[in-house]
Design goal:
13 strands, alpha/beta, Mannitol_DH, 21 helices, N-(1-d-carboxylethyl)-l-norvaline Dehydrogenase, domain 2, Mannitol_DH_N, three-stranded mixed β-sheet, five-stranded parallel β-sheet, NAD(P)-bd_dom_sf, Rossmann fold, EC 1.1.1.67
């Protein structure tokens, strides 16, 4: 049955569906970068509220700033912006259809429709899932990369912006000029201090063309930090077939694990839905939650994924089934990551690690090593290298973290140990591949990629251990290096 408003009532009784009248939803949120994670996470929390008759004036309008987003727009509009969510619980699967999204804006080079919509009085939150690499960060100065071609374009043509931040600045300018209040910009990406990073990006860009506007955004807008957590695999033919097994023809279904967590700083300048009534946590201390999650889960993904790619292991769950990889994961975590993680009110770091091991081991979640290893250019500086820097400063253990970096370098050669090819897996693959090839003869050359490693290339212990591990991987293979690290 093709998913649509007209067919909701005909779905099998075992499938959850909106109990609210979708015609009564009015817009309140524009979400940019609308993909699987948003629909399984933020949109689900809003759906849960609407099921209780709440937040009906916080409907979601989808948007995108990349040409590739147009395909998602077409798929969702063809099914009235409904989404089938399939929970992959090891004890049993379940499906529900959610409906808080009510429109998807045209994807345009100049973002004109997006700017007009965000400038409307009804919109009070603009939310983002644009991936860690979508923030145009300059690792050297820890801020917006003003030299990036897209940012330079937006500075030269603020009326026809190319980036999400240029579009936000243009919309806030229209609101100010019309006497409307600023909207909240809510990052839902895996960045520690994501609200602060987003504020810096928007305000810095605005300063280049209109310092008074920049000050107005900074003083009257809001950019709450948040921690988001739910493992959501990519959708492919298997996921579409799974939706069909429930009797639903959905061209963009979402599968997800049986776990969600959302921690938010309660700093909104134009109101917000009562997400806490659906299980979100509002707190003044997001940092502790996001630090634990990013270091144990997100960095933990990188501990596994590159080794898994080299060893032709298809999924993260399969990595956890491999005794050597599972032991490697636990030892790096306990010896080198957990010492730099503090407890939060509900959870000690050791207990969180046990939870993550169980979540990663869920055989129902076909989360591919390729997806998790994608965009190491953003993920290693965002997730792994801050831990390594902490360890260097505190003279803590670094051997496993250096091995993790060596595994990434070897993965970027583009060849698995069985001789099969690893297809380009990074937005800057050509540069990563070139550095990896150079590092085969001169290992330290990998660390000399200054936008990624900065001053870590000057830390003698890091250079020595990284070089040792990369040389061993190259000469004896990945498993030999893992066994030596574990003392086997």
């Amino acid at each position: 049955m093709k998913l649509s408003n007209d067919t909701l009532s005909q779905l099998p009784q075992t499938i959850g569906r909106p109990s609210y009248d979708r015609a009564e939803i009015s817009p309140g949120i524009v979400h940019i970068g609308l993909g699987n994670f948003h629909r399984a996470h933020q949109a689900w929390y809003l759906h849960a509220l609407m099921q209780r008759g709440l937040a009906m004036d916080w409907g979601i309008i989808g948007a995108g700033v990349r040409a590739a987003d147009a395909g998602m727009r077409d798929r969702l509009l063809a099914q009235d912006c409904l989404t089938t969510l399939i929970e992959l619980d090891p004890t049993g699967r379940s499906a529900e259809v959610i409906g808080p999204m009510i429109d998807f804006l045209p994807v345009e080079d100049d973002n004109a429709s997006l700017i007009r919509c965000m400038a409307g009085a009804a919109i009070r939150i603009v939310a983002l899932t644009v991936t860690e690499g979508g923030y145009y960060r300059d690792a050297q100065r820890d801020g917006l990369d003003l030299n990036h071609n897209d940012i330079q374009h937006d500075i030269a043509r603020p009326d026809r912006p190319r980036t999400v931040f240029g579009a936000i600045v243009a919309a806030q300018r229209l609101r100010r000029d019309r006497g409307l209040p600023a909207f909240t910009v809510q990052s839902c990406d895996n960045l520690q201090g994501n609200g602060q990073i987003t504020r810096a990006a928007v305000v810095t860009l605005a300063q280049q063309t209109d310092p008074e506007l920049a000050a107005w955004i900074d003083q009257t807008g809001a950019f709450p930090n948040s921690m988001v957590d739910c493992i959501v695999p990519a959708t492919g033919p298997a996921e579409i077939a799974l939706a069909r097994s429930y009797g639903i023809e959905d061209s963009a279904p979402v599968t997800h694990e049986n776990y969600r967590h959302w921690v938010i700083a309660d700093e909104f300048c134009a109101g917000r839905p009562p997400w806490d009534l659906a299980g979100a946590i509002f707190t003044d201390d997001v940092h502790g939650y996001e630090s634990m999650k990013i270091r144990v889960l997100n960095a933990g993904h990188q501990v596994l994924a590159n080794a898994g790619e080299l060893l032709s292991i298809a999924t993260i769950a399969d990595c956890m089934k491999d005794p050597l990889l599972a032991a490697f994961f636990r030892q790096v975590q306990t010896a080198e990551i957990l010492p730099h993680v503090t407890a939060v009110p509900e959870m000690a770091p050791e207990d969180y690690l046990t939870l993550i091991e169980a979540r990663f081991s869920n055989p129902e979640i076909r989360d591919t090593t390729r997806r998790v290893a994608y965009d190491g250019t953003s993920r290693h500086p965002g997730f792994v290298l801050p831990i390594l820097r902490n360890a260097v400063r505190s003279k803590g253990a670094i051997d496993g973290l250096c091995l993790v970096e060596a595994l990434w370098a070897q993965m970027c050669t583009g060849q698995r140990e069985d001789g099969s090819e690893i297809a380009p897996n990074d937005p800057d693959w050509e540069a990563r591949n070139s550095a990896a090839e150079h590092a085969q003869k001169t290992p330290e050359a990998w660390l000399q990629q200054s936008p990624i490693y900065g001053d870590l290339s000057e830390q003698q212990d890091v250079v020595a251990r990284f070089s040792y591990w990369l040389s061993m991987i190259r000469a004896q293979g990945c498993r030999a290096a893992l066994r030596e690290y574990l003392g086997h």
